[in-house]
Amino acid sequence: MPSISRSPLKEQKIGNLNQGSKASNKSLDRKHWILQQRRSLPIASAERKLVDEVRKNDTMIIVGETGSGKTTQLPQYLFNAGFCRDGKVIGITQPRRVAAITVAKRVAEECDVQLGQKVGYAIRFEDATSGSTRIKYMTDGLLLREALLDPILSRYSVIIVDEAHERTVHTDVLLGLLKKVQGARLKQHKLDKPYANNVVKFDNECHSSNTKFSPLKLIIMSASLDAKGFSEYFGGAKAVYVQGRQYPVVILYTYNPEPDYVDATVITIFQIHLDDNPGDILAFLTGQEEIELVDMLVHERLKQLPEHSRNILTVPIYSSLPSDQQMNVFRPTPFNFRKVILATNIAETSVTIPGVKYVIDPGVVKSRYYNPVTGMESLIIMSISKAQALQRSGRAGREGPGKCFRLYPESEFWKLIDSTVPEIKRCSLSNVVLQLKALGFDDIIGFEFMDKPSRSAIKQSLQELYLLGALTDDCKLSDPVGIQMARFPLDPIYSKALILSREFRCLEEMLIVVAMLSVESIFYSPREKLEEARSAWKKFSSPDGDHLTLVTVFRAAIEYREKSRAATNKEKSIDKSLSRWCRDNFINNRSLKHALDVHSQIKVYLEQMDMSLSSCGDDVLQFRRCLTASFFLNAAEKQPDGSYRVKANGQNVQIHPSSVLFRAKPECIIFTELIQTNQIYVRSVSRAWMPELSKYYDAES
Ligand code: CDP
Ligand code: MG
């Protein structure tokens, strides 16, 4: 059995840091270390074989253990083998933004180039590429948007669909689209003449018409051993397996179900820290809020330990974490410290963090869930699948034997479903339908999905899009509303809200609302300071509801930032003072920063579409009218027992206690978020504007 120790390479790294060697030596050491690490990856010995196979096959499936080097190495192998000749690009899609960013940064470092040059990334609202980028990491959603402008993806010689086993809705749509694109490119190649619009059945204009078209190489990468489904979907495409390296992992279960897995996670972290050997801990949690809660609880309990046992370093990682903080998880653990990584399921397969020896798995994940009866989507915390549980425990055995603490009894494990249901079967399809329509696929029911969503779910989305004005009577994309809606990288209902708010002269306010709603939880409420937090939020609170409250918070933050800017021009000091403002006001600093970022990015789209910002000023009725007109599908009426009934589908919901309208309970509300715990709650709630609402529901009631 392999011995329990950190790899010698890692020790070498820690040693170097402690010796405080000169900068140039340090960077040489780092380069040397990275090179050695690359060579020792399981995929390294398969380089030639993989390149040969890609040359021979237009479509291929590569299956390999997480951490074997697929994402970081394969694009480099293909680049070195000449797949970027003629200025073509290798595109690698990821289901998650964090993975796209962190991997691109890592590969840029491995190639010893500046990020954004040869190696870059692009995600929604952020583009770190240039004309010289040849290895481009991006989210799968982003590549779908690129296809709107360039239907045969002519810049790419190779497209790697990574993490395909995750089967996100974007991945599934992308697979269907790429199949078509590949066919079109091959046809063009055989004709061997420049691309002409009439060859491919797409509506859009092609922006690069003078290049000769080589066939598109398509590589599907997956961490799950089941390559059959992908292979069949691509007409019997070849599957290649990359041998992984997996040390034994001891699995421990609880005797009884845990009533509070957050608490159980914290207790387990300390049990490991105090009783077990050195080695980093990876704990799987469901989202930003939970991660921040565990982080706080760990620090609180650390204070009760003797000084010499306080050597824990916590690092969070989740999708909306600002990109400057994402790389923190990859920093080497300081000497004698134990790193505790608090992660969402992003660390299951997308991102591999070295040094992990202990995994804590509460067995839950936050997922999108669509109720086909009500036509509403919500985020719910649900049990993971057996496949996910195995992936999670596998993270503990990458560098040596490890331990996985499953915070549930073994009998529960056997009750889990074998593998996760593809997202396309459990999410709202409005966005998918809108995108496919914009890509020129009119027959959605006939689209070749790997797993077909139900007919009724497709019909429901068509109906929703029709009600939002995105589709015409004969189910075509409407001009201009549908076309404009498809251009925004947002959920159709939010795009519609922005478009409508121009008419209502409150685009400025709606833009803030959309930006603030696109991040997880703006308000930060530590358990023990809840009252203090509530009184701090009072000054932002609007009697009209949560949406205008969010507008007030955003504007107060901007005002404060501008004041600091007047006092100093140092960005770092401005940043620091905004963080202080957030702390004083119990506002989540990370979420606010993210919202500021999203705000400025959507603004660029608005400018490109010639939509100028106008404010309704003090005329809040105008804003309420607009909110009602935009989200009329999310209107709910009060019932005698104080609960609410959603007008569109009769569902019974409650106002979430965090809403400013929780006590006021107005007769009729508009909500923009549905959360399902033991109850169904609506969060982000405002007073509806009845005269506007009656336009949509009069006939029915
Ligand atoms: O894609 P796959 O799971 O096969 O592996 P990968 O993401 O290419 O990772 C290969 C190795 O690079 C792993 O050992 C990671 O720990 C390391 N890596 C890293 O140190 N820093 C990053 N930002 C990304 C990867
Ligand atoms: Mg990978």
From TrEMBL:
It catalyses: ATP + H2O = ADP + phosphate + H(+). InterPro entries: DEAD-box_helicase_OB_fold, DEAD/DEAH_box_helicase_dom, DNA/RNA_helicase_DEAH_CS, HA2_WH, Helicase-assoc_dom, Helicase_ATP-bd, Helicase_C-like, P-loop_NTPase. SMART domains: DEXDc (SM00487), HA2 (SM00847), HELICc (SM00490). Residues 15-26 have a biased composition (Polar residues). It holds the Pfam family HA2_C. Residues 1-29 are annotated as: Disordered. This is RNA helicase. CDD domains: DEXHc_DHX33, SF2_C_RHA. The keyword ATP-binding applies. It is an enzyme of class 3 (hydrolase). Residues 268-440 form the Helicase C-terminal domain. Residues 51-243 form the Helicase ATP-binding domain. Gene3D superfamilies: 1.20.120.1080, P-loop containing nucleotide triphosphate hydrolases (3.40.50.300). One of its GO terms (molecular function) is hydrolase activity. It comes from Dendrobium nobile (Orchid). PROSITE patterns: DEAH_ATP_HELICASE (PS00690), HELICASE_ATP_BIND_1 (PS51192), HELICASE_CTER (PS51194).
